[in-house]
Amino acid sequence: MTAGSLGYVYRENSSNFPRVPYLCADATIVSRWKSRLGAPQKFKVGISWRGGSKRMSRARRSIDLDQLVPIFAKDSCSFVSLQYGNVSDEIKEFNTTHAKSIVEFPQEAVHDFEELAGLIEALDLVVSVQNTTVHICGALGKTCLTMVPCIPGWQYGVSGNGMAWYSSIELFRQTRLGEWAEVINNISTRVEIEIARKMGRLI
Questions:
Q1: Tens-digit pLDDT string for the chain (203 aa)
Q2: Which residue in 173, 168, 127, 128 sits closest to 148, CA to CA?
Q3: Is domain 19-202 annotated with CATH 3.40.50.2000?
């Protein structure tokens, strides 16, 4: 038997997946990030819009920031980049042409998984394409609204709005190749629901 056969042996069907968080962010790091994020009255959303490399279907999995404007257009939200790689120019260009700015922290905060886990835990919600961010959110039990292309990665399955591995990941799937508008509108509505829930708790 090879290591690649272990999944077949131990995960024969969906009921064999425990779907419970198995990582815990360092409390000191989480507290530090909460202080850096500030504005407790704001609903804080982490975003990641690019996934994979050219060899790993980046074009199919990624999205332009401009396409996410319906999600950004919420006055009660602040948005934080969780995107790995050099995206500073992209964020600066977006921030100069749109009313809603995206907060960007130094790349060390995203490249270091312990720091990234702490930042994610300090947020209220995450919106991401298929990439590592989704799996960290799932491992932590953080709600992540995930944009899934028509041809998804095998980990995301071919249908349904959830992942076998994690209970906190919600999938929003394309119905037509390359068209993200429906996905984004559905996520925008879902974000509104989460904002209402938080505001209800604060009242």
A1: 676 666 667 777 777 778 899 999 999 999 999 999 987 778 999 999 998 666 656 678 899 999 999 999 888 899 999 999 899 999 999 999 998 899 999 988 888 999 999 999 999 999 999 999 999 999 999 999 999 999 998 889 999 999 999 999 999 999 999 899 999 999 999 999 999 888 775 44
A2: 173
A3: yes
Listed by start position, the domains of the chain span 19-202
Structure tokens at 39: 């504005």
For 155, other C-beta atoms within 10 Å of its C-beta total 14
Residue labelled with tokens 């996905």: 183
Does residue 151 sit in helix, strand or coil? coil
Query: Hey, is 146 helix, strand or coil?
Result: strand
